[in-house]
Amino acid sequence: MLRFLVRRLLLVVPSLLGLLVLTFVLTRVIPSDPAAAMAGENASTQQIEAVRARYGFDRPLYQQFGIYLQQIARGDLGTSVFSNRPVAQDIGRAVPATIELTFCALLLATCLGIPLGTIAAVAHNSPLDYAIRVLTVAGLAVAGFWLAIMFQLLFAMDLNWLPLRGRLSSSIPAPPAATGLFLIDSLLAGRLDIFRDALAHLVMPAVTLAIPATATIARFTRAGVLETMQKEFVAYETAVGYGRGRLIAIYVLRNSVVTAVTQIGLLFGALISSAVAVEAIFDWPGLGTYAVTAILNLDYNAILAVTLSVGVIYALVNILVDLCHGLIDPRVAEQM
Fold first, then answer.
1. CATH number, domain with residue 206
2. Is the pTM of this model over 0.90?
3. Is residue 159 part of a domain?
4. What SS3 class is residue 74?
5. Which of 133, 212, 289, 325 is 20 to 30 A (C-alpha) from 40?
6. How confident is the model at residue 200 (pLDDT cuts 50, 70, 90)?
7. Domain-located, residue 315
8. Phi-psi bin for 166: left (phi > 0), alpha (psi -120 to 50), beta?
9. Total domains, the chain
10. Helix/strand/coil percentages in the chain, nearest 5
């Protein structure tokens, strides 16, 4: 297991390097001058040239990339043009909000998707199965931004059940920063009032992200359970008198969810990309909102930092998914 973990971590390095090369080149070939963007709208030609020389924009592209890699090795992601703060500091503030939102959405999708897929497979070709399949198709077809706006109109503006936007109410102070995750930090501080307020703000954006993810997990779980139920060992266990519920819960489901678990890892990346629109609608101060601001302001250092951060998070999540495979299926653990 340790050898597998080290091998996967080593494979992350070339993947992140390739991601950085692609993003770096794209930010340099777009028809805009990064030096002019960093100097400001009212900058003179001399000021722009000074910025270009200071940040190495007058050098060949490969030299610029080499300088950027040296900065990353030192933990320096540059300075944001928009905020005039170190990009690492801005990323440190945005990442916990996105992680909290994405993981809550993924947890909700997993807790709903696997049972729904299992029920649909057990009730194969029944009205219940058809109903779940229709719901999953609808969940995949609905646009996330439209769903977010509908939730706001119904639950925040009409019913006034949930807050409209933000991560906390203006009258509620942020909990002492231990992890950056408000739900955990509020519990660690013993502030249930902050926990309730943070949870209320989290419900709508998390459910918005969770709906299509739930549909995907349910469909893959259903397919996996149906395939497993055709195996010979299921017929044998049924013949020797195992109850249907126990058979499905202990034997069938464990052999069926490997594909669904793989999809959970892939869904994490999809949820982060979907969070760009959802965070903008709900005014959620995460990586999505930060990325949109960086793109609109041509903040190249911030764009590259967001790309690197998402790549690192996505790689780590997929390593955790592979480790979960080993825990679920001992045959996978032996191959590690």
1. 1.10.3720.10
2. no
3. yes
4. coil
5. 289
6. very high
7. no
8. left
9. 1
10. 75, 0, 20
